[in-house]
Amino acid sequence: MDQLKSPLIDSFDRHHNYLRISLTERCNLRCSYCMPVDGVQLSPAEHLMNASEIFSIAKTFVKFGVTKIRLTGGEPLVRKDFQRILELLSTLDVELSLTSNAVSIDRHFQQLKKARVKTINISLDTLNAERFHDITFRNYFNRVYQNIFKLIEEGFIVKINAVLMRGVNEDEILDFIAFTKDQPVAFRFIEFMPFDGNQWKREKTVSYQEIMEKVQSAYSTDQIIRLQDAPNDTSKNYAIKGHKGTFAIISTVTNPFCDQCNRIRLTANGKLKNCLFSQKENDLLTALRNKEDLEPIIRQNINKKFEIRSGMRSPELFEDLKHHQQNRSMITIGG
Ligand code: SAM
Ligand code: SF4
Fold first, then answer.
1. CA neighbours within 13 Å on the CB side: how many for 106?
2. Which domain holds residue 196?
3. Is the CB of 123 under 6 A from ligand 1?
4. Helix (H, G, I), strand (E, B) or coil at 181
5. Percentage of residues in the chain having pLDDT higher than 70
6. How far is ligand 1, taken at its centre, from the CA of residue 87, in Å?
């Protein structure tokens, strides 16, 4: 085994041990909060990391103490060499996980198990088939819904991510919570966040406080249990007494949790981002192809990480769309 090097610690003493790798800029859905209406300019194929380049960069991060790798996208499962990537990464000493829209996940159960993937995050923003089409512009509700049950049956730990948007799906908060009564899933409400081209407005974001008020309107204080959050957890976790599942809120807009951040992101075209909202990126793929040492590039990237949301400390700064127009669309970052 390669010798471990000193960990990736930034100037705010945050240890970065969690790498999220976007495998593709493509997707089989068109979620309005993620994919701009006119689509995105896709990188030419030769500018994307191939399977062995992904492995090589991931291996470098493991040497710097990364213990967890999440595969995301775009939709990671649309990559034709997904199985190969999974096989390669499963040889590393890391916890591997996946974020997917679940449209085609039932074709991958065996390879996911073989790679020791235990926890899978699935996006589902509504329990209504027609509304699913309105949000994603595709008719895959039944597939996704059934695949969630199949994942549970197959023994995976399932987390469901729902981006709440006012006037779109905030009326389903209690339905999502009711879903956790008999299903052992963690339903995670994500505050709608601004990215290039997603037509974000502050008024469309349903806040942590509003979500909790809705829950409190239906359940008494002694039925709502505040759970212990895991270290570096981005979500505040709860359960309703007697429910098999739990629910959580990810409140990047109204209550950022940057002080605990342990994440680094690698885009499908090999750029390193130290924050979801960072406008500056470092090109690891070109450096790898030029046989340069990646360590100084990675350390410089981590050192330059801002304390909060890439420097957007105040709500005013965060809500100023010009900052987000200088960032990417979410589909090309990998959430
Ligand atoms: N295609 C996969 C999926 O949908 O799960 C993985 C990629 S997707 C970009 C990763 C996560 O980002 C999803 O849970 C999605 O809901 C979330 N996401 C995308 N755009 C968002 C936004 N504007 N605000 C909050 N979450 C967002
Ligand atoms: Fe595709 Fe996921 Fe973005 Fe939806 S959220 S468009 S499924 S990448």
1. 12
2. 18-333
3. yes
4. coil
5. 99
6. 24
Q: Does residue 36 sit within a domain?
A: yes
Q: Give the count of beta carbons closer than 10 Å to the beta carbon of residue 189.
A: 29
Distance between CA atoms of 301 and 282, rounded to whole angstroms?
A: 7
Q: Three-state DSSP class for 145? A: helix
Ligand nearest to the CA of 165: 1
**For 78-127, what is each residue's pLDDT tens digit?**
999 999 999 999 999 999 999 999 999 999 999 999 999 999 999 999 99
Residue 71, domain CATH: 3.20.20.70
pLDDT band for 245, please (50, 70, 90 cuts).
very high
What span, in angstroms and rounded, lies between the C-alpha atoms of 79 and 91?
Answer: 20
Tens-place pLDDT, residues 147-180: 999 999 999 999 999 999 999 999 999 999 999 9
If we measure between CA atoms, which residue out of 116, 121, 76 comes closest to residue 92?
116
The residue assigned the tokens 């470092």 is: 282
Summary mean pLDDT of the chain? 95
Tokens 């991958």: give the residue: 108
Measured from the CA of 99, which atom of ligand 2 is nearest?
A: 2
Q: How far is the CA of 6 from the centre of ligand 1 (A)?
A: 32
Gap between the Cα atoms of 120 and 103, Å rounded: 13
Give the number of domains in the chain.
1
The pLDDT assigned to 141 comes to 98
CA of 35 to the centre of ligand 1 (A): 9
Three-state DSSP state, 196: coil
Does some domain include residue 109? yes
Phi, psi of 254, deg, nearest 5: -95, -20
Tell me, yes or no, whether 156 lies in a domain: yes
Select from 92, 145, 146 the least CA-distant residue to 117: 92
123 part of a folded domain:
yes
